[in-house]
Design a protein that fits this description.
0% strand; mainly alpha; 226 residues
Length: 226
């Protein structure tokens, strides 16, 4: 059951990330411009913010089953990667809460000039806490995927696609992520990786359910696929 729940959660995380990016609101510009953009599309920021809060919740049941993969190859990577990812996942929640705070400022009905004075403090505090945590989560997921690869649980192309996503999210990918549609395209590798691993976990659940009574199950022996 844990593999089925984990697979569904990782697949859901991939969908949530795409929906969040599609609904995202550009928060660049002056504080007044930020509030105006939010006021013009409050639903988009609400979806984006709640998605950021939900994402780490999905990662907990999504990643924990992989700790049961047996064998020495990749086990330490999986453990370390899982711990780093779950700790860093709080960064998504921090960003989401900050988004809801900005939403409140933009839709409060109070003087827009006074509310604009609060935009920078909210953004600075969120970035100061959220960015380091998000970086930890990014690195943790790299280590986790490497662990799954070493355990022969996924194929090498999954790691390649994830590294591409990691690089696109870095300053190297700024030319692409500057536009809304470019930002959406940049999240496709993340959705592919998590969706594929989620499918593999669902396959694992099915394999275990079909195992004969009394048979010894070795999750780590599930061969990688291309």
């Amino acid at each position: 059951m844990k593999w089925l729940v984990g697979g569904l959660c990782l697949t859901a995380a991939a969908v949530v990330e795409l929906v969040s990016t599609f609904a995202s609101v550009s928060l660049s510009g002056s504080p007044q411009q930020v509030l105006s953009a939010i006021a013009a599309n409050p639903t988009g920021l609400k979806i984006e913010s709640y998605s950021s809060v939900v994402l780490p919740v999905l990662l907990v049941p999504g990643l924990l089953p992989t700790l049961g993969i047996v064998g020495t190859q990749g086990r330490n990577f999986i453990y370390v990667g899982t711990c780093l990812t779950l700790m860093g996942g709080f960064g998504h929640a921090v960003v989401g809460v900050a988004g809801l705070s900005l939403l409140g400022l933009a839709t409060s009905g109070n003087d827009r000039g006074q509310m604009a004075n609060l935009v920078d403090p909210v953004a600075i505090n969120a970035l100061a806490v959220g960015l380091p945590l998000l970086f930890v989560a990014f690195v943790g997921l790299v280590v986790w995927v490497i662990g799954l690869l070493r355990a022969k649980w996924i194929a090498v192309w999954v790691l390649v696609v994830y590294v591409v996503w990691f690089l696109v999210q870095s300053p190297l990918g700024t030319p692409l992520t500057n536009s809304h549609w470019g930002l959406l395209v940049s999240q496709v590798p993340f959705a592919v990786v998590f969706g594929w691993i989620g499918i593999r976990m669902i396959q694992q659940a099915y394999r275990l359910s079909e195992a004969k009574p009394g048979a010894v199950s070795t999750p780590g022996s599930l061969p990688a696929t291309s």
